[in-house]
Amino acid sequence: MIGIATNTAAVDVVWRNLMGAVPDAVIVSDASGQIVYVNTAVTRFFGYQPTDLLGQPVEILVPRTVRGQHKSHRAAYHSEPRRRFMGFGSDLRAVRADGSEFPVAISLGYTTSPSGNLVIAIVQDLSDLRERDRSIENLTQRMVRDTKLEEVNKELEAFSFSVSHDLRAPLRVVDGFSQVLKEDYFDKLDDYGRDCINRIRTAAQRMGQLIDDLLNLSRITRSDMVTTDVDLSAMTREIVEMMMAAYPDQKVELAIEEGMVAHGDARLLRIALENLLSNAWKFSSGQPTARIEIGRSKSTRGETYFVRDNGAGFDMAYADKLFGAFQRMHNAQAFPGTGIGLATVQRIINRHSGRVWATSEINKGATFYFTLFQEAGNGIQYNPTG
Fold this sequence. Notes:
Blueprint: H1 8-21, E1 25-29, E2 35-38, H2 41-46, H3 50-53, H4 67-79, E3 84-86, E4 93-95, E5 101-113, E6 116-125, H5 127-185, H6 191-222, E7 227-231, H7 232-246, E8 252-256, E9 261-265, H8 266-283, E10 290-299, E11 302-309, H9 341-351, E12 356-360, E13 366-370
Parallel strand pairs: 8-10
Antiparallel strand pairs: 1-2, 1-6, 3-5, 4-5, 5-6, 7-9, 10-11, 11-13, 12-13
Helix pairs in contact: 5-6, 6-9, 7-8, 8-9
């Protein structure tokens, strides 16, 4: 038999150094529940200095609501000590010096000493793990919700596309026969009859425009995106030139910031700018001289683009309806349109993971803001500092 001599003092130093290196909190208590040893990690976990805990009952680290139960469990454990692991899958909690509680997992073990059994508890803080679990759960719920929402949106878009196509055939019949009546029988009708024909023609043409707008809105959502660097300044100048040619009698002062380059789908961004500029052009048409400004502002979160006019404006009390399909803030006779333009803008900005919002005062103009590839969300915000 080979004998092994041990140096008790040396072993004690090694053991204490080893426990001091353990990243989790180590707490040793005796049969009476008094703490006889802790490592330095208890300060990080519980907020106590190690010397503050020595001689204290171990229940000082247990929430007040369960201290009575803990004493009974501790006595039962000392009567039948065994290795035990607890905390994962249950709401086991510890309490810090400041009274705050946190979730823990505890590995229990025991050893003997001249004065009796000692219980060794190794405590793990599960706060970060629980937070990660909650984050994963929230992310999973959002993914499920977004998947369902995407499926619903696809069904609605397919339905819209189908209905729009199906409406075209009967509408062509109405439009065609009303045109025949106007060309061949207009002079045979009285004033009321001629007025009815004109109303039918106007309604049919408006319905045709609505169908076109619905189809365009559906295509925007369904089409694939091709992202590149897009010169928004040059694109704006091209759009403005076409508008000036279409409305030569309208006086407009323009301010277009140079050097605005954004990353996105050029085709979709052109449609968005065309709608925003068309709105600015239309709603400022009542001014002796319309003023339209296209620019950007920069912040730590990126660039925010805007289109500003000095036109009719709108009541901010109704801003939450601004980007809905067929929502109109003004009389259709004063400012013609179908109410699809801003809904189209909102969908395009959504596809670029951006935000779009507006500020306005009645008769003092409006400013429409948008960002691209900054913050994913519902795509609609009405606070420019958002």
